[in-house]
Amino acid sequence: MDKKAGSIEIVCGPMFAGKTEELIRRIRRLDYAKKKYLVFKPSIDKRYSNESEIVSHNLRTCQAILIDSSSEIEKYITSSINAVIIDEAQFFDDGLIKVVDNLADLGIRVIVGGLDRNFRGQPFGPMGNLLAIAENVTKLTAICVVCGEPATRTQRIINGKPALENDPLILVAAKESYEPRCRCHHEVPSK
Ligand SMILES: [Zn+2]
After folding, report:
1. What distance in angstroms lies between residue 15's CA and the mean position of ligand 1's atoms?
2. Could you report the per-residue pLDDT of 41-91, keeping only the tens digit for each?
3. What's the rounded Cα separation, in Å, for the pair 184 and 182?
4. DSSP element (H, E) containing 176
5. Which of 67, 77, 110, 172 has the smallest number of CB atoms closer than 10 Å to its CB?
6. What's the sign of the alpha-carbon dihedral 74, 104, 9, 122?
């Protein structure tokens, strides 16, 4: 069997940067090229949408397989699969790094979308390592709500104030919102 080269592509950035739109754009191109592909997203995302699809802000959608763990991906892979798309990759376990690397070694084009930074501005989940092993990285920006410059970070706001550095990533029963901000206007108070 001829060995074909796989690859890892990352589409990352803060919230509101159009990551899912970019993933769907790449998926449409796979459709036009008549490639076989699978789309995965973490089941944690059910908090935002009950549907097993990825939805961009302009409401373009694509069917996705919901999984709880990165270890579930490989059992869906057959020799006819050309590409694998993984959305919201920041919510996956660190096992995703090895899974993605293995898929690329099998000759599969792997496209990973996710937030590169958490609200503290630090690498989010497995994204830091995935960025290091990727062949191709697209960092998208949003627009800072304070100054209008490109935003590379996600500001987390809890009950109207910037979230504190030691606030847990998941807070039950708090009024939370998120906005895109630049490096200057991203606030992470420590107390
Ligand atoms: Zn700004």
Report:
1. 15
2. 999 755 455 456 666 655 566 789 999 999 999 999 999 999 999 999 999
3. 5
4. strand 176-181
5. 172
6. positive
Give all strands (DSSP E) within 28-125, no chain letters: 37-42, 53-55, 61-63, 65-67, 83-86, 109-115
Burial class (CB in 10 A: 0-12, 13-18, 19+), 102: middle
CATH code for residues 7-140 = 3.40.50.300
Give pTM, 2 decimals: 0.90
Which residue is catalytic, options 9, 22, 88, 179? 88
- Position 13, amino acid: G
Residues of the chain with CATH 3.30.60.20: 141-191
Helices and strands in the chain: count of H runs, count of E runs = 3, 13
Which strands form 176-181's sheet, in the order they lie side by side?
Answer: 161-162, 153-158, 176-181
Q: Outline which parts of the chain fall under CATH 3.40.50.300.
A: 7-140
Calculate how far, in angstroms, residue 16's C-alpha sits from the geometric centre of ligand 1. Answer: 15
- Residue 88 annotated as catalytic: yes
DSSP 8-state code for residue 124: P
- Domain 141-191: state its class: alpha beta
